[in-house]
From TrEMBL:
<dbReference type="GO" id="GO:1990460">
    <property type="term" value="F:leptin receptor binding"/>
</dbReference>
<dbReference type="GO" id="GO:0042307">
    <property type="term" value="P:positive regulation of protein import into nucleus"/>
</dbReference>
<dbReference type="GO" id="GO:0003677">
    <property type="term" value="F:DNA binding"/>
</dbReference>
<dbReference type="GO" id="GO:0001936">
    <property type="term" value="P:regulation of endothelial cell proliferation"/>
</dbReference>
<dbReference type="GO" id="GO:1900745">
    <property type="term" value="P:positive regulation of p38MAPK cascade"/>
</dbReference>
<dbReference type="GO" id="GO:0051541">
    <property type="term" value="P:elastin metabolic process"/>
</dbReference>
<keyword id="KW-0964">Secreted</keyword>
<dbReference type="GO" id="GO:0008206">
    <property type="term" value="P:bile acid metabolic process"/>
</dbReference>
<dbReference type="GO" id="GO:0090335">
    <property type="term" value="P:regulation of brown fat cell differentiation"/>
</dbReference>
<dbReference type="GO" id="GO:0120162">
    <property type="term" value="P:positive regulation of cold-induced thermogenesis"/>
</dbReference>
<dbReference type="GO" id="GO:0000122">
    <property type="term" value="P:negative regulation of transcription by RNA polymerase II"/>
</dbReference>
<dbReference type="GO" id="GO:0042593">
    <property type="term" value="P:glucose homeostasis"/>
</dbReference>
<protein>
    <recommendedName>
        <fullName>Leptin</fullName>
    </recommendedName>
</protein>
<dbReference type="GO" id="GO:0008340">
    <property type="term" value="P:determination of adult lifespan"/>
</dbReference>
<dbReference type="GO" id="GO:0032735">
    <property type="term" value="P:positive regulation of interleukin-12 production"/>
</dbReference>
<dbReference type="GO" id="GO:0042755">
    <property type="term" value="P:eating behavior"/>
</dbReference>
<dbReference type="Pfam" id="PF02024">
    <property type="entry name" value="Leptin"/>
</dbReference>
Amino acid sequence: MRCGPLCRFLWLWPYLSYIEAVPIRKVQDDTKTLIKTIVTRINDISHTQSVSSKQRVTGLDFIPGLLPVLSLSKMDQTLAIYQQILTSLPSRNVIQISNDLENLRDLLHLLASSKSCPLPQARALETLESLGGVLEASLYSTEVVALSRLQGSLQDMLRQLDLSPGC
C-alpha cells in the first residue's frame, strides 16, 4: 500500500498540533523592552543631552518631531525615517541603534498582523534625498537632533503601546 501526502500529513498531525503561536502579549512586552533598550542606548551617548526634542533647528526639518497620536503604521513610518537617517550617519554610535530600529519595526509588523492591519512597506522618502548635503554641512548637529527626537518619539510610542494603538 502506498502512503500518499494525506498519510504523511496524518502522521505529522500530532507533532503539528503541539506548535503554538507566540502570544501577542509577549510580542507587545518585547516591543516595549526593545524601546526601553534603545532609549537607554541613546542616553549612553553623552552629547545627545544638549538638544531638546522640541527645539527647531534650521535645515533639519526632515527629522520627525513628536506626533500626537500614533497608529502602528505611523510608528513604522516614523521608525523607517529615523532608520534611514541613522544609516546615513558615519558615526559608530548609531550602528546598534539602527539595527535595533530594524528589529523594532519587525515587532511592530507582528503586532499589526495580529490585529489584521496591513502595514505598507516603507517607501524611500523624497524628503531625505537631500540628506547628503545636510550631512556634509552639519554632521554632528544632525546626529544630535536625530537621536534626541528619536528618543522623544520612542517614549511616545511606549505610551501609545499601553493604549493598544490602532492600525
